[in-house]
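testing teh design pipeline on a random one, pls ignore if ur not involved
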């Protein structure tokens, strides 16, 4: 298994908040979110939603896709690590095995 992807919260903390010397509360106030939401994202306990992605993108001159793609990478990594195996692909003209 490869290394886990960088979470959106790590990116937010290390690439945006720290260099700007901005607190989680400052960001929460700026984007109109509860500071608990920002704290949970930064600490990897909550996912970035489409609404928050739009607000982060506007604030930091990125795209919402940047934030959502980072979240999707984390979600897929977590799902893959929980699955024992994936189903086999379906073959056209054959019925799937029961």
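output:
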């Amino acid at each position: 298994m490869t290394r886990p992807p960088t979470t959106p919260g790590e990116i937010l903390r290390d690439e945006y908040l720290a260099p700007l010397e901005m607190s989680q509360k400052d960001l929460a106030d700026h984007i109109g979110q509860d500071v608990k939401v920002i704290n949970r994202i930064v600490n990897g306990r909550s996912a970035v939603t489409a609404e928050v992605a739009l607000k982060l993108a506007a604030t930091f001159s990125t795209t919402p896709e940047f934030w959502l793609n980072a979240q999707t990478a984390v979600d897929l990594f977590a799902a893959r690590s929980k699955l024992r195996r994936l189903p086999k692909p379906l073959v056209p003209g054959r019925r799937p095995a029961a």
